Amino acid sequence: MLSYLHGYHAGNFADLHKHHLLVCLLAALNRKGKPWNYLETHAGKAHYSLNSEQSEKTAEYREGIARLWTQQGMPDSVANYLEQVRTVNPEGSLDFYPGSPALAAGMAREDDRLHLMELHPGEVQQLKQAFSSRADIAVHHRDGYEGVLALLPPKPNRGLVLIDPSYEVKSEYDQVAAFLPKALKRWPNGCFAVWYPLLPAGRWKMMVESIRRSGLRNILRSELWVRNASDQGMYGSGMLIINPPWPLADTLQQSEPWLAECLAQDAGAGQSISWLVEE
């Protein structure tokens, strides 16, 4: 989907849900000294200006990262995520939002490796410029599903795959559901994180059900919604985590109720953490 540009949505509530969880996963990998690989199917850009024409046109970040920016007394995992955002805003004002490639790059250690897939030519060029001095980061101008599959299993055989399409093309739901069994067959001990939007049309439900019935095991589901589901547009954000690290479920139980309350737009806001499929 080459017409989609995440700059219009960077730093919104869905990014906070998704990227808080991503930071939790990377922090879990960093608890051990062994190196890891990070692979991403739809990387986008490394950094997004919140003062850009794209960002100001929708101003979605105002109901997302701008709400979190001045909060106090947040859970440790949310504070760790916010610290990563502060790293790209050294002047102290909220001017930039880091995409998932920048978050992973910021948490990578000397022997860790990143493999970023992106089809949009403009986004790829900016990714390459952002990481031109980083020998540990490979940027690939190729289809994300094909590209990630070609690299599995990675060496070292430890790490995370983030699957984060825009879903503007309806077939993406089927593509994700078809991709996961193939990827897990090649890398059964890898951790896979799948983001999906909660929309009134409910197409994500068929994808989640297809994954549930696929035979894959050990799948944690995290969903956060900021307003009533009957409203138009995206009202929430979902993540499936296959082979989640211990104790991710406990960490989310402690942090996501706070995050949902912080981001609530009406009384219909809430969150849920459950096992879609247990081990």
Walkthrough of the structure:
The protein is an alpha/beta fold and 279 residues long. The protein is globular, with a radius of gyration of 17 Å. 39% of the residues lie in helices and 19% in strands. The two termini are 34 Å apart. Helix 1 (13-30) packs parallel to helix 5 (100-107) and helix 8 packs parallel to helix 9 (203-212).
Q: What order do the SSEs take from the amino end to the carboxyl end, as H and E?
A: HEEHHHEHEHEHEHEHEEHE
In what range is the share of β-strand residues? 15-25%
Straight-line N-to-C gap: 34 Å
Provide the gyration radius in Å.
17 Å
Low-confidence stretches: none
**Counting H and I runs of at least 4 residues, what is the number of helices?**
10
Global shape: globular
* Biggest sheet character: 8 strands, mixed
Tell how many strands the DSSP assignment holds: 10
Strand order of the biggest β-sheet = 5-4-1-6-7-9-8-10
Category by helix and strand content: alpha/beta
Report mean pLDDT, rounded to a whole number. 95
Helical residue percent? 25-40%
List the helices and strands and how they pair.
Layout: H1 13-30, E1 37-40, E2 47-49, H2 53-58, H3 65-69, H4 76-87, E3 96-98, H5 100-107, E4 113-117, H6 121-130, E5 137-140, H7 144-151, E6 159-163, H8 171-186, E7 191-198, H9 203-212, E8 219-225, E9 236-242, H10 248-263, E10 270-277
Parallel strand pairs: 1-4, 1-6, 4-5, 6-7
Antiparallel strand pairs: 2-3, 7-9, 8-9, 8-10
Helix pairs in contact: 1-4, 1-5, 1-10, 8-9
